[in-house]
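Lab notebook, design round three. We kept the backbone fixed and only want residue identities now. Task for the bench partner: fill in a sequence for the structure below.
Input structure tokens:
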């Protein structure tokens, strides 16, 4: 009788362990999927913003008539690009912090508008 109880207790322990491992693996998978989706969305947004800034700067450079105007466009482009890197880094950090806390909707609800080179 004692051997049967020990066997039953061991089986229950193994089943409990297997359940815990399965649940942990499921949460890990959910976190990975949410992180990948958030990263993909933010990377695409960042790429789109960089492309738009580049096109704007090229159009402005075509209109330049002096080296001073070229430098002004380049400075504005560099400032806008630096701001975009900073904003994107903050959004990445917010998204991954939300994912780490277990929130499924990790992406910001209303993203700020893209910075434009001026």
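Proposed sequence:
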């Amino acid at each position: 009788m004692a051997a049967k109880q020990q066997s039953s207790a061991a089986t229950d322990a193994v089943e409990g362990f297997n359940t815990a491992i399965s649940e942990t693996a499921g949460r890990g998978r959910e976190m990975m999927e949410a992180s990948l989706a958030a990263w993909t969305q933010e990377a695409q947004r960042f790429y789109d913003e960089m492309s738009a800034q580049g096109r704007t700067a090229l159009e402005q450079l075509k209109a330049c008539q002096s080296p001073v105007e070229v430098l002004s466009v380049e400075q504005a482009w560099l400032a806008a690009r630096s701001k975009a890197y900073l904003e994107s880094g903050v959004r990445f950090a917010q998204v991954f912090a939300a994912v780490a806390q277990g929130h499924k909707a990790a992406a910001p609800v209303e993203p700020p508008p893209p910075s434009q080179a001026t």
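Keep this in mind before ordering anything: Residues 2-100 form one domain.
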